[in-house]
Amino acid sequence: MMESRRTFLRTLGAAAAAVSVPGTAVAMDPLKRRGGPHMQLSLAAYSFRKYLTDYRRKGAGAAPGEMTLEDFVDLCAAYGLPGTEPTSYYVPDPLPDGYLQRLRRRAFLAGLTVSGTAIGNTFTHPPGPDRDREIAYAKLWIDRADDMGAPTIRIFAGELQDGTTEAQARQWCLDAIRECCDYAGTRGVILALENHGGIVSTAEQLVSIVREVDSEWFGVTWDSGNFRSGDPYAELTMAAPYAVTAQVKTRVSSPQGSQPADLARIVKILQDVNYRGWLALEYSGPEEPKVAVPKYLEELRRLTAHAPHVSSAAG
């Protein structure tokens, strides 16, 4: 059985390297990482969304939530984490002068690194005002990520727009990402495409876009809970070689429904590709986050602390 599994994983890895779309140029190879796996834990602010003001939906006149992003950063420090993800949705709008720089300072003085942020963009619009607006928004947040010290931004592809085909949407998405990556490179920020439905519902769709964009400022946001195929773990295995940042959810989905995630298996998939980077918990379960989050962080600490030994000659 173990040999059959190893054969399956080798075959799946080969498929990831070869995945392409007919008629397109495929260039980007899986990321080469020196040394063995090394993961640092972070926490996405989305985990405490019930306590934070979501400025995407409510605007500047929103009633303040019980928690600010400053409170969230302090909470990450209280949890003993090395990283924090102040997700953009909870940044005040309009943005007060110097706010992001002060948030960066607060994290630094708490002994935290800003592991990244995220934006809610859609790149599947045809050329025109809607597409231009989404690209401008992404570029705005590239500047803001640089201001807050975030090395990466989780971005999205988007759903099909009315009256368009997947082939069209894919090309528009490719063009938008390339333009944004060119700009991101000038600010030293890496864009990371998340497996989040729409035209990147499958690992094959996701990896084919990353390979075709072929930018050193681009990769995958590897989200353990967002694939909904018959075997989400196989899809995660396919996407893992391209991960520049990773987030873990406590449940996985399939056509049969949602079920508790095998966190040990999830971490092992990343270890097998020598993933070195942030692993952010994004809690979205039904349990009270103030109760659930510390519990899951403790389990992730245990799992990530036992990386396989790697010889000093590795890489």
How would you characterize this protein structure?
The protein has one domain (2-304): Divalent-metal-dependent TIM barrel enzymes (TIM Barrel), CATH 3.20.20. It has 10 helices and 11 strands. It has helices spanning 2-18, 55-58, 69-78, 99-109, 129-148, 166-187, 203-213, 232-239, 263-272, 289-304; strands at 38-43, 83-84, 113-114, 117-118, 152-155, 190-194, 218-223, 243-248, 251-254, 257-260, 276-281. The protein has a 7-stranded parallel sheet, covered by helices on one side. A two-stranded parallel sheet has the order 2-3. Helix 7 packs parallel to helix 8. The two termini are 29 Å apart. 41% of the residues are buried. Residues 1-26 and 309-315 have low confidence and may be disordered.
